[in-house]
Design goal:
heterodimer, A: about 325 residues, alpha/beta, ten-stranded mixed beta sheet, about 15% strand, globular, B: alpha/beta, nine-stranded parallel beta sheet, 9 strands, lyase (chain B), hydroxymethylglutaryl-CoA lyase (chain B)
Chain lengths: ~325, ~300
């Protein structure tokens, strides 16, 4: 059960093309120390001030499984909700959903997997069984007019099964979409994907789910996240998940990186002339804050370079 | 395969094959603080030769006064096991360096120009035009000896002093080098500030002046943009990519920041795209692990980091 991703999610809103959902992922599971509630709240508040329109705040999973998220209610109640910013939370089941709503959640997310083995090892049930659980959550959410985002993990490879057929990813994405998820985020959980496999997978999924309802959630474990994101953008996907400072390692490759850094994604998008409405310098500040609080270095190359450049004109121009 | 699907905007497929120019032993080590023993350099080059890399930049015939790391240039050149079919170009900043290189057995050389005047002045104490004139004598001598010359252009996507660099300036310098007789021009994002946006604008300008099959990209990963920039270059018809095993060689302009893109990460991406490189990734990673152990430093390659910990 330990791999249920619970995240603080930062969304970049691109006026023109791209709605980017960068998220701060699993800093709870991969970061060994429990982060104080006050720090989490401060981080989210800083991110709310950067221009990001969606920030995944917490997870209503049992604190027995994810102690780092035990303060989910306090976090949701403690943050200063900025107007025009959404704060979805993870709700793996009905209990979690009810707790989330009681705590004031106005958007939720459910997680499916494209790999049977991963599903069984992660949430102790088959993909089909997980869909039944989500159906309950989604139907209840519908009644309460609460939008639900669906995630598909292992979209480009599984730590147990290895290669995952694109058709399997499409099948799960389609199920979640037909159940009522407004958007499906396709996750390269172990970061093994490349532009080649990203292309094939998206080609398959796009036959079943409208492109404008798709998002990519790339991990940078093999350094492939940015070219994979670029590929997705070129295929018309306009929602991208990422994490400030690239927080959240890969639980399957100890010490390796996991989430792609929001700063690095933003730098690329801005360089491509895509407007985001997000202030990169403020995101870097938020990244600096959380890295100091966690006593660790950022995973963002942009943040590292900016922090160490000796009078480089180009750096100032680009940030 | 993905390669055929990720076509350029004009519908052109990605290249079937990509030639990787391994710059670790020269560009990489030159920017590492630790002095590397000659034997280690030779071992590294031999391991890289065994991995299938077609081009390995072996050393630099620059004055040891300026680049002490390359002082053992002759011993390295003479000590390596030259694999048939593999090129071992060396840097030759002037005629003296060229002559020393030939004497030491070099059969391919490389010269450098900058797309930024300020960078040229601060780096080699002369204007871009003056630097190209200096290379005239190297080009003449190289022709006489039948030695191919590769040209590098630095600061193609930004300069640490000038900031933005006009694509037309890059095109101008690339064209000069090509007209002088360089068989290939490697376009270097020296400070890694480029993005797919600036990469495509620059390549558009350069490919109007130099045939695309004579172009290469040399991307730095200082801002994490290297692989995305390389992908865009491939989509625009480029089929030669420079990289450095283990991502050796930091960025001298951003202390502690990364520099060269890691060959392992490039190969991983290319193979994932169905593009042939002739490189055995696991042997390449062995070479990377070897040099990192010797330098007592962590690899900059994410593929290497991920693979040894799974």
């Amino acid at each position: 059960m330990g791999n249920v991703p619970t995240t603080v999610k930062h969304c970049l809103s691109y006026e023109q093309l791209i709605q980017d959902y960068p998220w701060l992922k699993r800093w709870l599971l991969e970061e060994k120390e429990i982060v104080p509630t006050g720090v989490k709240i401060q981080l989210i508040d800083m991110l709310s001030g950067t221009g990001l329109p969606v920030i995944e705040a917490t997870s209503f999973v049992s604190s027995k499984w994810v102690p780092q998220m035990a303060d989910h209610t306090d976090v949701l109640r403690g943050i200063q909700r900025a107007p025009h910013v959404r704060y979805p939370v993870l709700t793996p089941n009905m209990q979690g959903f009810q707790d989330a709503v009681a705590a004031g959640a106005t958007e939720v997310a459910v997680f499916g997997s494209a790999s049977e083995t991963f599903s069984k090892k992660n949430i102790n049930c088959s993909i089909d069984e997980s869909m039944l659980r989500f159906k309950e959550v989604i139907n209840t959410a519908k009644e309460r007019q609460i939008p639900v985002r669906g995630y598909v993990s292992c979209a480009l490879g599984c730590p147990h099964e290895g290669y995952i057929e694109p058709s399997k990813v499409s099948e799960v994405a389609k199920s979640l979409y037909e159940l009522g998820c407004y958007e499906i985020s396709l996750g390269d959980t172990i970061g093994v994907g490349t532009p080649g496999s990203m292309f094939k997978m998206l080609q398959s999924v796009m036959k079943e789910v409208p492109t404008n309802a798709l998002a990519v959630h790339c991990h940078d474990t093999y350094g492939q996240a940015l070219p994979n994101i670029l590929t997705a953008l070129q295929m018309g996907v306009c929602v991208v998940d990422s994490a400030v400072a690239g927080l959240g390692g890969c639980p399957y490759a100890q010490g390796s990186s996991g989430n792609v850094s929001t700063e690095d994604v933003l730098y690329m998008l801005h360089g491509m002339g895509i407007e985001t409405g997000v202030n990169l310098a403020k995101v870097i500040e938020a990244g600096d804050f959380i890295c100091n609080a966690l006593h660790r270095e950022t995973n963002s190359k942009v943040a590292k370079a900016r922090g160490r450049t000796l009078g480089c004109v180009s750096v100032r121009e680009n940030i | 395969p993905g390669r055929q699907c990720l076509s350029t905007s004009s519908g052109q497929a990605l290249p079937e094959k990509v030639k990787i120019v391994e710059v670790g032993p020269r560009d990489g080590l030159q920017n590492e603080k630790t002095m590397v023993p000659t034997e280690t350099k030779i071992n590294l080059i031999d391991m890289l030769s065994a991995s299938g890399l077609p081009v390995i930049e072996a050393t630099s015939f620059v004055s040891p006064k300026w680049v002490p790391q390359m002082a053992d240039q002759v011993e390295v050149m003479k000590g390596i096991d030259r694999k048939p079919g593999v090129s071992y170009p060396v840097l030759t900043p002037n005629l003296k360096g060229f002559q020393a290189a030939i004497k030491a057995g070099a059969s391919e050389v490389a010269i450098f120009g900058a797309a930024s005047e300020l960078f040229s002045k601060k780096n080699i104490n002369c204007s871009v035009d003056e630097s190209l004139q200096r290379f005239d004598e190297v080009m003449k001598a190289a022709k006489e000896f039948g030695v191919p010359v590769r040209g590098y252009v630095s600061c193609v996507l930004g300069c640490p002093y000038e900031g933005k660099v006009a694509p037309e300036k890059v095109a101008h310098v690339a064209k000069r080098l090509y007209s002088m007789g360089c068989y290939e021009i490697s376009l270097g994002d020296t400070i890694g500030v480029g993005t797919p946006g600036s990469m495509s604008k620059m390549l558009e300008a350069v490919s109007r002046e130099v045939p695309v099959n004579a172009l290469a990209v040399h991307c730095h990963d200082t801002y994490g943009q290297a692989l995305a920039n390389i992908l865009v270059a491939l989509q625009m018809g480029i089929s030669v990519v420079d990289s450095s095993v283990a991502g050796l060689g930091g960025c001298p302009y951003a202390q502690g920041a990364s520099g060269n893109v890691a060959t392992e990460d490039v190969v991983y991406m290319l193979h994932g795209l169905g593009i042939q490189t002739g490189v055995d990734l696991s042997k390449l990673m062995d070479a990377g692990a070897f040099i990192c152990r010797t330098l007592n430093r962590k690899t900059n390659s994410k593929v290497a980091q991920a693979t040894c910990k799974l």
